[in-house]
Design goal:
By secondary structure, the chain is mainly alpha-helical. It is 85% helix and 0% strand. Helix 2 runs antiparallel to helix 3, helix 3 runs antiparallel to helix 6 and helix 13 crosses helix 19.
């Protein structure tokens, strides 16, 4: 097992462990939202929350991983601790100003959203929204935006922590937002005429809490205390030169989500797509994003050395390790879509019809899970050499393709067309990125070990999915979906047998990915 594989597995295991905690709490949060918040009210909140969340991804987590980590890594490699601290403090100040300016501008511009909704309505064929309903949605959007300042600075604090090798706090801190939303939803929703206002309070509390713990960790592990407004620092300029194209690249994907959200809002399916997408995000965040975050610092250092061979092998390791975790999750979600949705969500305000619709959307999303994960890995191959323009161009093309597919598919397929459009556009995104990476780093597909791993993982995953389907088919003849216990067994037994089959077949076929993760989990010091 190569040093690249070992390090990536160790870092991914650390990050995945904390992310799993956050995602499990996120699942609990979604169960609570589905139970207590009516669909129309929840649609308003989810659309309102989508805007600051979109900007957080663009300027927060996406930016720190792609712009600040390479620059801070280079400063750490070539300078001393004090110069690293000064640069981190200056970048901290710059991002504070950016988040404050964007928040103010957004609050002033949000009242124009109803006009945009009216422009999109003929494309979706939906009925016009009630004026009061639209006004409440706009007001919620304005009140969600201060959250961007808290969560954006929290996301920035991850950058210096990643560079010094501290992954645990960034991985579990997002759980605080989920805890705040659960508490405010359960405890306060009944006190508001519009229940979603309790969730607005929850995101404020969660954002403040996440910033507080990450700020403390940044101070403890890097010595950064207060922002230093040395905005002319050369490192700040280098980071923002990278940040511009990154924002454009991130914007393509985030605009996709926003356009999907507006289309879904127009046909009353925001919560349907949200709940389906959240189930897909669980394995994607725990496995796919964890691996992509883990490999970036080492890729950046290799990029600074000009070591193309190391980067190529690290990318292959990232793809194969992600496939080992993502492929079985993808097929498992497709086979068990309806039982999973019924078990997790069907109670209170969430009906049997909601279950059918969400399960259908889940199947369309799950089919693209491999592409969602491999895009995350692939862009790191460009960011490692500070090439942020190429992913921007590809992501922009993917965005245009997604919007066109939305327009073409929403008429005949409804909300299903929106989920399918997302899967198809991400698949094309990955294929183009992979082709360009092969042109720069050599034929990455030609490695026999890499190809063998992908084929082995695919075969084992298909056998596992067949076994899971057989178990589900047998159990449905004995269990009624009326009872919670039966629904629980219809999900847990097939998953348990599937996991056992997958691990046994992986061990029997000598999977190096299984050995890598075993080593990472068994190490006493990570």
């Amino acid at each position: 097992m190569s040093d690249s594989t070992s390090k990536t597995s160790r870092f991914a295991a650390i990050f995945a462990g904390g992310t799993l905690l956050s995602r499990v709490l996120g699942l609990v949060r979604n169960i609570v939202l589905a139970k207590f918040i009516p669909g129309a009210s929840l649609d308003m909140f989810l659309l309102a929350f989508k805007l600051p969340n979109m900007l957080r991804d663009m300027l927060g987590e996406g930016a720190v991983n792609a712009a600040f980590v390479p620059v801070l890594s280079e400063e750490k490699e070539t300078g001393d601790k004090e110069s690293f601290r000064r640069l981190a403090s200056a970048c901290f100040a710059a991002m504070l100003l950016v988040f404050l300016a964007i928040t103010l501008a957004a609050i002033l511009l949000i009242p124009f959203v109803p006009a945009l909704m009216e422009w999109l309505r003929p494309l979706s064929g939906a009925e016009p929204k009630d004026v009061e309903y639209l006004a409440t949605t706009v007001l919620m959007m304005q009140w969600t935006f201060p959250y961007l300042v808290f969560i954006g600075l929290a996301a920035f604090a991850m950058a210096p922590l990643f560079v010094v090798g501290h992954y645990s706090t960034p991985s579990w801190s997002p759980a605080l937002l989920n805890i705040a939303l659960i508490v405010t939803c359960v405890g306060l929703y009944r006190y508001f005429e519009e229940p979603s206002w309790a969730l607005i309070l929850g995101i404020w509390l969660g954002g403040l809490g996440q910033f507080a713990v990450l700020y403390w960790a940044m101070y403890r592990y890097t010595g950064v205390t207060l922002p230093s407004f040395q905005l002319r620092h050369p490192g700040v300029r280098r980071a923002f030169l990278l940040l511009g194209p990154i924002i454009a690249g991130q914007a393509a994907g985030e605009v996709n989500k926003l356009v999907d959200g507006f289309f879904a809002y127009s046909v009353g399916a925001v919560s349907t797509l949200f709940f389906a997408n959240q189930l897909v995000q669980l394995p994607l965040s725990v496995f796919g994003i964890a691996v992509s975050v883990a490999i970036l610092p080492s890729l950046s250092r290799a990029g600074a050395r000009g070591d193309k061979v190391y980067i190529g092998k690290a990318l292959q390791n990232g793809w194969s390790q992600t496939a080992f975790l993502i492929f079985p999750a993808m097929l498992g979600l497709m086979v068990l879509a309806e039982p999973i949705v019924r078990l997790v969500y069907e109670r209170g305000e969430f009906s049997t019809e909601n279950t059918r619709d969400t399960a259908t959307a889940l199947c369309y999303y799950a089919a693209g899970l491999w592409a969602f994960a491999w895009v995350k890995i692939s862009v790191q191959g460009f960011f490692a050499i500070q090439n942020t323009k190429t992913p921007v161009i590809i992501a922009s093309g993917s965005m245009i393709m997604n919007i066109i597919l939305n327009i073409l598919l929403i008429g005949p397929m409804g909300f299903r067309g929106l989920a399918l459009a997302t899967t198809l556009s991400f698949t094309m995104n990955f294929l183009v990125l992979f082709w360009l990476l092969c042109r720069y780093y050599g034929p990455l597909y030609g490695n026999a070990e890499f190809l063998g791993s992908i084929l082995r993982i695919s075969g084992v995953s298909i056998f596992m999915a067949a076994g899971v389907y057989a178990v589900r088919y047998i159990l449905t003849t004995y269990f009624s979906t009326v009872y919670f216990t039966h629904n629980f067994l219809l999900v847990v037994l097939p998953i348990g047998i599937g996991v056992g089959m997958y691990l046994a077949l992986s061990w029997w076929t000598g999977s190096p990915e299984l050995r890598a993760f075993q080593t990472a989990l068994w190490r006493r010091k990570l």
